[in-house]
Amino acid sequence: MSGRPIECETSAPGGETVSREFVSEVIPRAIFQRRKGLRRLRMSFDYENRLIIAVPWNCSMRKARDFVESNRDWVIDQAASLSPVLSLEEHFSRSPFISMEGRRIAVSIRRVEAGRSQWIYDEKRAEGLFQLRNSDPSETALRKLLRKVAAVSLEQRVRELASRHGFEPGRVTVRDQKSRWGSCSRNGTISLNWRLLLFSPGAQDHVILHELAHLRHLDHSKNFHQLLSSLDPQRTEHEAELDRDGARWMRVDR
């Protein structure tokens, strides 16, 4: 980041957030978030391509705005390099595949006058069809179907991999997380992002195995990493895919 961060002292504990949107000459969509315990102004882009300015609790909004303007070049450069936020139809027009059951499934979208919107899966041919009724808003219908597919297929994959490797997870939930691909709670609940369907089968399995490994090591200790590497011999390749494609896939359907 160009420009020197503005130092703003604060001794307030906690992490309460107050957000405020504004229209800036630098970028049209930005949010200021006041945070207790933060000592410096910070900027980053979220997965909706909004500029997030984290503001120390006792720092004035004028200083925060000046901070954005003083880093104009960095903001413009970063904004230009962001992946676009894509609708589901736009995404599948570019990458018509999902992963389920450990396989790569070719998908297509077809609109029909009669009948209902539904997911039709040909297991033998490894092909799937999103059939959308013309009277249904296409993006809404596609989102509903895709998340149903994700809820069923990702839980099935968790159970399959858990059984194969001797894990006993609790509940499995599939949600629309803002920035995480998965998480594992202390009570054994595994939560996954539905967008894992968009990765290759190997990368999808890697995230699931990562969360299963947390059932034994609820940290990122040496023992955790040794276990994960033993579960996924192609770990390096799969983590590289997550790094390469993660930001793009996280921006789908925002």
Explain this structure to me?
The chain has 254 residues and is an alpha/beta fold. The protein has 2 domains: 17-81, no CATH class; 88-250, Zincin-like (2-Layer Sandwich). It has 7 helices and 11 strands. Strand 7 (118-122) and strand 8 (127-133) form a beta hairpin. The longest helix has 28 residues, at 138-165. It is globular. Residues 1-26 have low confidence and may be disordered.
Give the CATH superfamily of the largest domain: Metalloproteases ("zincins"), catalytic domain
Low-confidence stretches: 1-26
Task: Kindly report how far apart the N and C termini lie.
Answer: 26 Å
For this structure, what is the CATH class of the largest domain?
Answer: Alpha Beta
Numbering strands along the chain, what is their spatial order in the largest sheet? 1-2-4-3
Summarize model confidence as the mean pLDDT: 86
Number of DSSP helical runs: 7
Strand content: 15-25%
Count of discrete structural domains:
2
Major sheet: size, sense and barrel closure?
A: 4 strands, mixed
